[in-house]
Design a protein that fits this description.
Length: 111
């Protein structure tokens, strides 16, 4: 939740942020979340490249366990991203709960 923590710090440093509309706040949070995926995906790519080399050269006995672990990590990442995409869609369509605890904490009095 470092994206949310960044927003808390930003509000503390710059009180003008409290004047933002909820849609701008949501955009800022989602933008920070998306920025955090780039290094995760880069690490995944590097890990998969190494696994591919091992598969071709000389796979160690624990190779299948390693592949299974990476698959589990990828499925977890997909689950998280799917949930975030759904929240974004619902919010964009006006059905989502934009006014959750984060907004309430950042913007007391807005609900």
């Amino acid at each position: 939740m470092s994206s949310v923590q960044e927003m808390f710090k930003r509000v503390e440093v710059n009180p003008e942020v409290k004047q933002w509309e909820i849609d701008i706040l949501l955009y800022e949070l989602l933008d920070r979340l998306m920025d955090q995926y780039a290094p995760i995906l880069d690490d995944f790519q590097e890990s998969l490249d190494k696994l591919e080399e091992l598969a071709i050269d000389n796979p160690p006995p624990e190779f299948l366990v390693t592949i299974s672990d990476r698959k589990t990590e990828l499925l977890n990442l997909r689950r998280i991203m799917t949930q975030q995409r759904e929240i974004s869609r619902e919010t964009d369509a006006g059905r989502g709960a934009v006014h959750g605890p984060v907004v309430t904490d950042l913007f007391p009095g807005r609900s």
